[in-house]
């Protein structure tokens, strides 16, 4: 294993932690080369919605691969992309009339930021300042890092990151401070506000109320500041509704989607925009076009997988599965809340999270111990420092979900109180 030339993401190879070799997956289960069945309790980093290897998505990928694998998307088009764009505009808020393709959540955010700045530039009223929320995560490219929380994970690159306006996270009882800060930033002539609706994922599964989301949207609308919803994690049912924005009746100017867009099978992203964003770039003048592309923009195989995802949402009882899982998550998480050493148990839709230990954050010494504990018990859970969260595929059955919570309860008993002194 140590002889592998692979340099893994978010991995400290110097710690010599074992890296399991996965050979197959099915539903909520992963199977390893050494014969273990591992429960995927984090949907392979938040992407797998319906379960691994959904037959319909697999079939769509196979069929598309035999017909058209890849085609330049500048000045050319293909049916899987056309069908997907029509399908997305049909189920997303009607004001989002335009669909721009890219490959990952990070690129969908880069595209959103460029669209926003392009809009102000085209209006002859250049604005460049982006407003962000404390503890946000929007990806790992330079622009996406710039609008995300600063910390140990991007300290080496700080001089390259652009300045942003940061508003505080709306902790319970302090919501007004968040709204006031946003109002100040908007009044100072911001170009756009980018936010993860209802849940800040990588920031520690921090949940805030729909009413705050609605008020933030209203503040931006009143000030004419573009509102960018990064639903890369929250989209596709994660928070209980297709979009988290739906719970606040919020329609953004720009919407970022990725992760569950293909059901989590292959990489694809879209940045959806309202007509004024598109109109700002629309002219007979080539210098005003939207200057963005990547080689695999709207790859046909990825679009076919996304079309299968939309068909699954249409034809299968996905909303009912989401509702059932949401209810089970809430029940099991609330049972854990009585254990000593557990704090801040919270759930939203299919997401459940809790704090253990002393609250020392991402590099908490507890993180690696928990990771090893879960790995040894054939469970894919990846705590965010001392925050344990469960975000399984919607198809996980009760037995597997019970097993996940039994192991978490064991972990809390083993580490929960001891950490007060470490
Ligand atoms: C994961 C994530 C991203 C980045 O997506 P990638 O596909 O990993 O580049 C952006 N925003 C949010 C909210 C995310 O959770």
Automatic annotation (TrEMBL):
Cofactor: pyridoxal 5'-phosphate
Residues involved in pyridoxal 5'-phosphate binding: 105-106, 230, 294-295
Organism field: Sphingomonas gellani
Annotated GO CC locations: cytoplasm
InterPro entries recorded: Aminotrans_3, BioA, PyrdxlP-dep_Trfase, PyrdxlP-dep_Trfase_major, PyrdxlP-dep_Trfase_small
Catalyzed chemical reaction(s): (8S)-8-amino-7-oxononanoate + S-adenosyl-L-methionine = S-adenosyl-4-methylsulfanyl-2-oxobutanoate + (7R,8S)-7,8-diammoniononanoate
A GO molecular function held by the record: pyridoxal phosphate binding
Binding site for substrate: 45, 137, 259, 293, 382
EC code(s) of this entry: 2.6.1.62
Family of the protein in this entry: Belongs to the class-III pyridoxal-phosphate-dependent aminotransferase family. BioA subfamily.
Biological process, per Gene Ontology: biotin biosynthetic process
Keywords: Aminotransferase, Biotin biosynthesis, Cytoplasm, Pyridoxal phosphate, S-adenosyl-L-methionine, Transferase
Site feature (Participates in the substrate recognition with KAPA and in a stacking interaction with the adenine ring of SAM) residues: 10
PTM-bearing positions, type N6-(pyridoxal phosphate)lysine: 259
Pathway, per record: Cofactor biosynthesis; biotin biosynthesis; 7,8-diaminononanoate from 8-amino-7-oxononanoate (SAM route): step 1/1
Protein name: Adenosylmethionine-8-amino-7-oxononanoate aminotransferase
Purpose of the protein: Catalyzes the transfer of the alpha-amino group from S-adenosyl-L-methionine (SAM) to 7-keto-8-aminopelargonic acid (KAPA) to form 7,8-diaminopelargonic acid (DAPA). It is the only aminotransferase known to utilize SAM as an amino donor.
Subunit structure: Homodimer.
Cell compartment(s), UniProt: Cytoplasm
